[in-house]
Design a protein that fits this description.
homodimer, 332 residues, alpha/beta, 434 Repressor (Amino-terminal Domain), Rossmann fold, 6-stranded mixed sheet, 46% helix, DNA-binding
DNA sequence: TTGAAAGCGCTAACAT
DNA sequence: ATGTTAGCGCTTTCAA
């Protein structure tokens, strides 16, 4: 089913078919109708591959994420997919499985498809695909895990501030021994959160009793690091989990230990999502504005695709604190 | 950066470049090396668009899901993405947001990209994109929400059996008033689960005290339906949630009501996932073999792509029951 | 073994 | 207003 079949079925030239296909120039209404009918009858659909090759512009954008298993990233992907399709773009998805090499290979594959633009959340600070993206001059915005690159637009939250505020609230509630637990310092995001946490703790003169702990990429690893720390040291009065998977890990280990929340230990999580609210007590959390993140990332990329050459921007959105039942004043 | 640049840089013809690119025929080692070096130096990458147009076969497959927000579907997407990339395929992702029309438009877009194959989980029994897929003769396997179509391969679980077993276990535990809650009878999946539930309940002669309730596509809707039922009728001794979002909704409403699990009401969920295990008590659930589902769907599609013309297959995998603390014998 | 050339399905410049 | 035609970058005969 090519444009040619349609043309001969409608008794016109292929250029005319192309013209009605693209709403171009002035095709006589009668011809246009004939062509449309022919397309209908033959079940014709434009071949995007050929079209893209010729016009040298595509309606596909690439999205590369470190994973889809975290509710935060899954939600981000969902929002971005919705935005993409609502604006006539298709989404090529890559999940790097927290592996920098896979991030690179996903990006590589997308570049060879000549995507119109990309949105990527680098796996960690290395951002292995950075050079490649730059060298191909592809429009790309970094989201969430905004690395230190300064030559690409980025959209994320103010991680320092978010963690700082979270820690301060815990301190204000009376906590003196706070244990922060995160995934990996190799993730700039996480590092900023840790820094924010440590700053708040230092400001309150509590540096000696507080500590930030990193476990790794998945729940198991984080859980194990946390378990060791919990077994070999004094019980903190509050745990501040710095990502959604950390929150899950903390919940599991705390549950395992049989400590009660918030009586024995308070828990402040990150990346609010629905399951946190059905737990008893409901889990307090720092909430990232996922929808805004997606909207900003998308529109920045779109602007670039459409030729915007303004200086690189670095958007930092604010998080909000959802204070619920899992956090309270310590009992001692 | 085209094949032409590489050719002239290496002092060979474009055909030779193409040949080394595809590991074709016997190119003299010396030439091959020269070409490879040129590609390296120029940072050349094959244009998949042009390549696809010419060879009439692509390395892109489409995945259309009703949503990514459910952990079950997100996990399925992750597994499929991994399989795709590990075999050299790219993934075009569409999330239909539980809307049949969006399902159709996603499929349409993918077809116009001439994807090598598709994996789709229809939004509901209507499976609006079915005709289109058939008419284009594209290789497609239906996953999870296997509709009643018999002309497409499908991979899913034995929903009837899963729900039947779940209900029987509840009955065996002593429950006489069981309330099942699901999303929508328009989803064949869900309908089979309800049927399985009702069969088990009838066999035990409990049809009069048991009931299956459907709320809709999202947590809010299901939650509301459940709340109404809970307020206007006798409290069941057990709730059997028939999907992951139903489980979440049930958890929320039960929590809202302040009933204790499993003392007042037992809860059996569906689509086991990590958050269920950190709840106190941990939630019992029917677990779908996500990884196997993904593997079967993928390999069936791959077989079709590779020319397999064997009769349509309908794979039904078995679920397993994770019996945890949220289910126990009723207290009365 | 290597190269010249046709052409995948479409769009866009140009001719009519 | 409509048609003719030259490519987009690549693969693949086919000829040298």
């Amino acid at each position: 089913m090519t444009i040619r079949h349609v043309a001969s079925a409608a008794g016109v030239s292929i250029a005319t078919v192309s013209n009605v296909l693209n709403g171009r120039s002035s095709v006589a209404p009668e011809l246009s109708a004939r062509v449309r009918r022919a397309m209908e009858e033959l079940g014709y659909q434009r071949d995007q591959v050929a079209s893209t090759l010729r016009r040298r512009q595509t309606s596909v954008v690439g999205l590369v994420l470190p994973s889809l298993m975290s509710p935060f990233l899954a939600a981000l992907a969902t929002k971005l997919e919705g935005l993409a399709h609502s604006q006539g773009y298709q989404l090529l998805l890559g999940s790097a499985d927290e592996d920098p090499d896979q991030e690179l290979s996903r990006v590589q594959a997308m570049l060879s498809w000549r995507v119109a633009g990309m949105i990527v959340a680098p796996v960690d600070y290395r951002f292995l695909s950075h050079k490649l993206i730059r060298s191909q001059g592809i429009r790309c915005v970094i989201v969430d895990r905004t690395s230190e690159v300064d030559d690409l637009d980025s959209v994320g939250v103010d991680n320092f501030e978010a963690a700082h505020t979270g820690a301060r609230r815990l301190i204000e509630a009376g906590h003196r021994r706070i244990l922060a637990v995160g995934s990996s310092r190799a993730i700039p995001n996480m590092l900023e959160r840790i820094t924010g946490f440590e700053a708040a703790v230092s400001e309150a003169g509590l540096a000696a009793n507080c500590e930030a702990l990193c476990g790794g990429g998945d729940v198991q690893a984080i859980g194990q690091a946390l378990r060791q720390r919990l077994q070999n040291g004094p019980l903190p009065s509050a745990v501040f989990a710095l990502s959604d998977v950390s929150t899950l890990a903390a919940l599991r280990e705390l549950g395992e230990l049989g400590v009660r929340m918030p009586d024995d230990v308070s828990l402040l999580g990150f990346d609010d999502h629905e399951w946190m609210q059905v737990l008893r007590p409901p889990i307090s959390a720092v909430r990232q504005p996922i929808e805004d993140l997606a909207r900003h990332a998308w529109s920045r990329m779109l602007q670039r695709i459409e030729g915007d050459v303004s200086p690189v921007s670095r958007i930092q959105l604010a998080c909000s604190l959802q204070w619920r039942g899992s956090t309270a004043a310590p009992k001692d």
